[in-house]
């Protein structure tokens, strides 16, 4: 008989505390959808009322299978739960579950809040009772619980019991400062259960300040806690929260957890884990951590010669799990064999059929690797990948040739001493025997300079003669820039998402130390791919 | 009475298995020196004979206080230890200690080596006996020990005993594939000790494939092991080794370890930890991981408004250790999450003192929020934040004015039909009454076009008259681009990290729909901030 273990995601709330991370409304919606497809049990969306983005997000709440949860804090002293406007802001979001953080460490009650210990207990009780009376599932985040327990176990337990007796579904033991070690989490969680709080009402919330967030979460589960909180890619305040991208595969694949528990995330959904992890990095424009457990691009890379040769005999010699279980892939530098089955699958996606023993498969793989060494990334730029493959296979028509381009960016003060800027692009292409010269500037309808890439895109698409009908409806929907390598050797990678009027989307990539030139390459690929897809005939 | 716990560093050997890492001879020497200044007990230098760099490094062995160690493998079957040329290559390095990896998992003996189980035991015995006869301190790395113990405990223990009885000073339990969880490491290490191998002869070597490398190391120490292996910044094969940059402060600062153990690293040396961690990233040209426990730049960053206000009352409210203990620093970033208490703390960091009731605090906060709505991000760009604050406070001197700039990017085919590109920038500044016109192009020494931002940066810094001395040593070390908002309304955010010859670093931000103009703003802030910091007098 398996037991139920609940996964609680706080990427959208505690994850937003990561330095440098500021989600937009659209990003929050995308992330919530990805989390829901994975299957986590709870999605904490943010703190309604605390900032405009969080309020807007709850107002346009996505439909999720997961229990959608609003975060807030227990009512303040000196007013009733009903009359606390911060708490009212949280309740107004109308979520089925509400998680309120409150104190459980005596030092924080007296130092940070400056109120009496009993007042705090009453604030907890009244707040939770208010949630329950309003028909919400109530969660109580016991902030600094482990430090509080070490300082004053009776008081810390009293806070938990106030929440539990008032009807909280979950009491979450939080190691807010992240300094507690796994053996302490284990002992203290056991003590909490021994004091009468049932394990299937206890959650664990850890941070990675000692590199032990995952281990502390497991230690609490070992002791009996049945809800675990964390974030995708371990985002979060300071060193981050427990990384769900690590914890989830540990819980689903490793014993004793795999046999003992059932969670909202099913074994099959694990295959989407690497993709979801990379998607989050894409949204945040962060460079994915290669060394991430399970989902990092190096997680199954076998560099040591001894390892690589044994892997060829039997992958279990140097792999703790099969990489495909989590949607990742083995990398054996110096061995092209590993990649060919992946490659054929991707070619099939592009409608290109190549026999398994075709030697050109190796040629394509070499070309892709060579370009990836230069900074190209084909994981998301499927359209550019297809162009590379067709080029190697001799299936890429030459629609037109760009002879040259020139872009000028100017900024100056005008006569009224206002700063004005303008970009201008000239593109010369040859179609068949005909040479065409186009010029565009970057000003949009509102008079704003939208920059050199905009001017270049407009000039390039302005007059492509016989192809004009096909590319007229093409427009840029996203543009991502990443610097690969550091310092003076910096290369710029640009990924462009394009869309046509039928809503088809495709992604292309360009790389150069010159950001405008990298963008130009990606634009060129975007146009070429559309001509190819729509069956344009070379002039 | 404290016990001795030994720290064994393998950055130069297992750390070199990191994907993308390849140390040069000089880099190995720099890292060995840094490790020795920290105080680790053993430095494993590499595998002499395996590659030219490792051989050269041992030939020019640095003098270290730490026990310098060569790595190799147990002799192969069918020859004596004396006649194994791989082992001879390792011995020839002449190090006081030698660590040999060998099998202890029956499956690997038969599958990877293809020899009899007893042959392997004899190889271990004879190899260790050979080291001891030659007067070396012998270490035996029991590869795949935990998996081997789970599969066949008798055989795994037999391998360990062969090494121990032959005189090995240390038997190192290796979780080579990184899949073992902390509770298993704890149980199995206890079982090894119960089987007669003394804990003060046992080492632990873990990998981070489940995010538990640090926890597994602690679990082995808890069970009685007295040597712990790891790498700086957690470098290593796949997901990396146990991170010594995390483990060392845990062992020195956290109980029960701090009271129980003495190591080669002393409390005072910990203050050098952050510097050593960053130095390694510098050597490898890697972007430091902000979220690294203890040494990451975000490890003591307090972004949540509630945290920041409590930190001002007492830093222990939200910090598990004082950041200066490990040579790190507290950061209270500014963002739209934060309120006035964050703001005052950040102003204080910049040396700006504003009274709590000063209405200009509200003005600064409004300006910051307004600019964040436009796409600016100040939580990493502290230097730009400081300029905004000083501007509101009327404390920003006007050093010079940029009248205009013009950047040209051209790509064309040359006479040999090669594609060539070049960028050129003209900048016109006014300093006092003097107008200065500078021009630069983007070509670097190797003839590569490094793009428009490079040309602009060079032109801007080319001739700033009276300020030239101050900005001469300024150079760009990192450049990050992010598109905020999507589609046609896209804004580009550029963050630039600059450095001077004293190693000071500062970050600035620029935002515009025009990527070149966003970069220009960030460059301008970088120069202005340095002029301000170095006390330049406005012309």
Describe the fold and architecture:
2 copies of one chain form a homodimer. Helices cover 37% and strands 20% of the residues of chain A. By secondary structure, the first copy, chain A, is α/β, with parallel strands linked by helices. Chain A has a domain at 3-265: Aldolase class I (TIM Barrel). In chain A, the strands form 4 sheets. Chain A has an 8-stranded parallel beta barrel with strand order 2-3-4-5-6-7-8-9, surrounded by 7 helices. Chain A has a 3-stranded antiparallel beta sheet with strand order 11-12-13, covered by helices on one side. The first copy, chain A, is globular. The first copy, chain A, starts with a strand and ends in a 6-residue tail after the last helix.
């Amino acid at each position: 008989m398996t037991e139920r273990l609940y996964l609680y995601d706080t990427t959208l709330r505690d994850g937003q505390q990561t330095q440098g991370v500021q989600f937009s409304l659209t990003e929050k919606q995308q992330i919530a959808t990805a989390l829901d497809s994975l299957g986590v049990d709870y999605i904490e969306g943010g703190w309604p009322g605390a900032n405009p983005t969080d309020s807007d997000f709850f107002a346009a709440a996505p439909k999720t299978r997961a229990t959608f949860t609003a975060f807030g804090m227990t009512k303040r002293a000196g007013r009733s739960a009903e009359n606390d406007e911060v708490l009212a802001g949280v309740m107004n979001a109308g979520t089925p579950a509400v998680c309120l953080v409150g104190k459980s460490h005596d030092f924080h009650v007296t130092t940070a809040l400056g109120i009496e210990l009993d007042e705090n207990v009453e604030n907890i009780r009244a707040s939770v009772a208010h949630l329950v009376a309003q028909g919400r599932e109530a969660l109580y985040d016991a902030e600094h619980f482990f430090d509080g327990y070490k300082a004053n176990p009776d008081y810390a337990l009293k806070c938990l019991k106030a929440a539990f007796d008032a009807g909280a579904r979950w009491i979450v033991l939080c190691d807010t400062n992240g300094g507690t070690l796994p053996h302490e989490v284990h002992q203290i969680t056991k003590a909490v259960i021994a004091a009468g709080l049932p394990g299937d009402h206890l959650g664990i919330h850890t941070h990675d300040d000692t590199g032990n967030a995952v281990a502390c979460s497991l230690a609490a589960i070992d002791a009996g806690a049945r809800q675990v909180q964390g974030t995708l890619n371990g985002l979060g305040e300071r060193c981050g929260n427990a990384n769900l991208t690590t914890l989830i595969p540990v819980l689903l694949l490793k014993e004793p957890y795999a046999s003992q528990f059932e969670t909202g995330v099913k074994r099959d959904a694990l295959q989407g884990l690497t993709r979801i992890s990379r998607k989050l990095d894409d949204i945040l424009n962060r460079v994915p951590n290669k060394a991430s457990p399970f989902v990092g691009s190096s997680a199954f890379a076998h560099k040591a010669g001894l390892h690589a040769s044994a892997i060829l005999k039997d992958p279990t010699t140097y792999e703790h799990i099969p990489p495909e279980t989590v949607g990742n892939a083995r990398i054996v530098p110096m061995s092209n064999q590993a990649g060919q089955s992946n490659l054929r699958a991707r070619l099939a996606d592009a409608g290109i059929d190549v026999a398994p023993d075709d030697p050109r498969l190796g040629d394509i793989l070499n070309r892709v690797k060579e370009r990836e060494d230069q900074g190209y990334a084909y994981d998301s730029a499927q359209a550019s990948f297809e162009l590379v493959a067709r080029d190697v296979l001799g299936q890429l028509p030459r629609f037109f040739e760009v002879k040259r381009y020139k872009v000028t960016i100017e900024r100056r003060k005008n006569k009224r001493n206002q700063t004005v800027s303008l970009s201008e692009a000239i593109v010369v292409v040859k179609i068949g025997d005909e040479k065409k010269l186009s010029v565009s500037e970057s000003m949009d309808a509102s008079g704003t300079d939208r920059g050199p890439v905009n001017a270049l895109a407009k000039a390039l698409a302005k007059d492509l003669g016989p192809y004009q009908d096909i590319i007229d409806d093409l427009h840029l929907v996203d543009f991502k820039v990443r610097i690969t390598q550091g310092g003076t050797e910096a290369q710029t990678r640009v990924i462009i998402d394009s869309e046509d009027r039928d809503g088809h989307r495709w992604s292309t990539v360009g790389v150069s130390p010159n950001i405008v030139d990298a963008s130009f390459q990606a634009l060129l690929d975007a146009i070429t791919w559309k001509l190819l897809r729509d069956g344009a005939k070379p002039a």
